[in-house]
Write a structure and sequence with these properties.
With 293 residues, this protein is of the alpha/beta class. The chain has one domain: Spore Coat Polysaccharide Biosynthesis Protein SpsA, Chain A, CATH 3.90.550.10. 46% of the residues lie in helices and 17% in strands. The strands form two sheets. The chain has a seven-stranded mixed β-sheet. Strands 6-9 form a two-stranded parallel ribbon. Helix 2 links the parallel strand 2 and strand 3. Helix 6 packs across helix 7 and helix 8 packs across helix 9. The chain is globular and about 45 Å long. The C terminus is likely disordered.
Length: 293
């Protein structure tokens, strides 16, 4: 692999070609060295046991720890692993888009590197895709969803859950979306749906998921939900939570500007290229607005 793996253009993307394996699992990775190898081997062991041909694409997002050396060693050892390395820390949206545009699977699932979601949930998403659903979300807000939390993290997980509910209510108000868990870290796509959706996404950061639902609504692609079980092993600092909260403001402005401009509607390639240039201008404007606060 090259030192830096940039997302391919639409015309060059493997996503626009015929599938050559059954399942692609895409995982974004940033500063995850502490448990990285154990979790990746856990994922591989599970996938080996479900009886489908698969690939795992891990997108390393400019980590400052030993994530990349660990992943390169795993890539050399395991033929089903492909490691893509972003040129610098580009963001979750950029990373997942990079992985999906390079995927070869008939069905494509992305999940979080911390493997918070149960492996059985990954299989549930795949089975819904195999039954004909084009877009499947592991929905944490469903009554059947379960959280497995040790005592030390109960308050953190409760705050996160309540914060997520409030944020999703804001997103539904601003964008008119029906889903109650836009930011779920477990989503699956048929290859055809992924090709139609990810060709018109522009946000590199945490809120790229909102674009997925705006685009799927525009295309008339239905969304299926499955309940999930989440297990929390690690905490994050309050400072990190506040930083994430502040950073979403310009991203929300950016996405709303794109929606008002019609960026998520189907367009010919030339118009789409022009829209990407406009998206960059909007992103810079939103960032300047944030810095002026």
């Amino acid at each position: 692999m090259s030192m830096h793996d940039l997302p391919p253009s639409e015309s060059d993307s493997p996503l626009m070609r015929r599938a050559s394996t059954h399942l692609s699992v895409v995982v974004g990775c940033y500063n995850a060295a502490r448990h990285l190898e154990r979790r990746m081997r856990q994922l591989l062991a599970f996938l080996d046991g479900i009886g489908r041909e698969y690939e795992v694409l891990i997108v390393e997002d400019g980590s400052l720890d030993d994530s990349l050396p660990i992943l390169r060693r795993l890539e050399a050892e395991v033929p089903s692993i492909t490691v893509l390395h972003n040129p610098r820390n580009m963001g979750k949206g950029y990373s997942i888009r990079n992985g999906i545009l390079n995927s070869r699977g008939k069905y494509i699932i992305f999940t979080d590197v911390d493997m918070t979601y149960s492996m059985r949930n990954v299989l549930s998403v795949l089975e819904r895709l195999e039954s004909g659903a084009p877009l499947v979300v592991g929905n944490r807000r469903l009554p059947e969803s379960v959280y497995v939390v040790n005592n030390a993290l109960v308050k953190y997980v409760y705050r996160r859950h309540r914060g997520g509910q409030a944020f999703n209510a804001l997103v539904r108000l601003v964008f008119g979306l029906a889903t109650r868990d836009t930011q779920s870290g477990l989503k699956g796509f048929s290859r055809a749906a992924a090709a139609r959706i990810f060709s018109h996404l522009y946000t590199d950061g945490f809120l790229f998921d909102i674009e997925i639902f705006i685009r799927s609504r525009t295309l008339g692609i239905p969304v299926a939900d499955v309940p999930v079980q989440l297990t929390y092993e690690d905490d994050v600092t309050t400072v990190q939570q506040f930083r994430q909260l502040f950073s979403v403001i310009p991203e929300l402005v950016h996405i709303k500007m794109l929606e008002l401009r019609g960026a998520y509607k189907s367009r010919e390639r030339g118009a789409a290229d022009e829209e990407k240039q406009n998206a960059e201008s909007d992103k810079a404007a939103a960032s300047s607005w944030s810095q002026g606060r």
